[in-house]
Amino acid sequence: MTKQEKVQFVIDTLEKIYPEIPVPLDHKDPYTLLIAVLMSAQSTDVRVNKITPLLFAKADNPYDMIKLSVEEIREIIKPVGLSPMKAKGIYGLSHILIDKHDGKVPQNLEDLEELPAVGHKTASVVISQAFGIPAFPVDTHIHRLMYRWNLTNGKNVVQTEKDAKRLFPKEKWNDLHLQIIWYGREYCQARGWDLDNDIITKTVGRQSVIDAYYKNKKTRS
């Protein structure tokens, strides 16, 4: 299989498995998505989706958010972890949105990345999911799968994003990054991974990864 055939196989398989793509984080507009994505750093989407309704019941826009203190925000979001940093970020970015952007979430990476506690990945998720602008946010699932599929060298997430954008058609980026995340959770996990159920890695995977999988399986049995 050529590299291009592998890429096409990945796209076709993911479209077959996920014709309808669920969005991982519950939100109703760009602001609530931004806050949810910020909260999801080193936490699970399930946990974030349990906490955001409590926060958004008190403040679902920057104007209401700055009426809360950092301490009050922290108290609500504590279960998602890293709450001191995240609470400061939420409060600080809400102020900046009001002062610099008329209370609206900007639609470009540069302005988003200037907001406190908002990194490149968070900004990419927001522009792709809230505004439909092509982006390819790389999380741990995408980084792991792109390496296993021999589509990147696994050096770092920056390289993985570059390779994903180079290999996949731009009009597919927004769907693909979500499809790969769901596939990683359901079929190609970091732990407890069953290669027999993982049609993509079995078909296009890096030989050294496949060999290591079977070697480990042999050792365990």
TrEMBL record:
Coiled-coil parts of chain: none
Domain HhH-GPD: 39-186
Bound cofactor: record note: Binds 1 [4Fe-4S] cluster.
EC number: 4.2.99.18
Catalytic activity: 2'-deoxyribonucleotide-(2'-deoxyribose 5'-phosphate)-2'-deoxyribonucleotide-DNA = a 3'-end 2'-deoxyribonucleotide-(2,3-dehydro-2,3-deoxyribose 5'-phosphate)-DNA + a 5'-end 5'-phospho-2'-deoxyribonucleoside-DNA + H(+)
Pfam (any one): HhH-GPD
UniProt GO molecular function: endonuclease activity
InterPro entries: DNA_glycosylase, HhH-GPD_domain, HhH_base_excis_C, Nth
Keywords: 4Fe-4S, DNA damage, DNA repair, DNA-binding, Endonuclease, Glycosidase, Hydrolase, Iron, Iron-sulfur, Lyase, Metal-binding, Nuclease
Highest taxon listed in the record's lineage: Bacteria
Co-factor(s): [4Fe-4S] cluster
PANTHER family in UniProt: A/G-SPECIFIC ADENINE GLYCOSYLASE/ENDONUCLEASE III, ENDONUCLEASE III
Family statement drawn from the similarity comment of this UniProt entry: Belongs to the Nth/MutY family.
HAMAP family (alphabetical): Nth (MF_00942)
Physiological role: DNA repair enzyme that has both DNA N-glycosylase activity and AP-lyase activity. The DNA N-glycosylase activity releases various damaged pyrimidines from DNA by cleaving the N-glycosidic bond, leaving an AP (apurinic/apyrimidinic) site. The AP-lyase activity cleaves the phosphodiester bond 3' to the AP site by a beta-elimination, leaving a 3'-terminal unsaturated sugar and a product with a terminal 5'-phosphate.
Name the UniProt record assigns to this protein: Endonuclease III
Source organism (scientific name): Kordia aestuariivivens
Lineage, uppermost ranks: Bacteria, Pseudomonadati, Bacteroidota, Flavobacteriia, Flavobacteriales
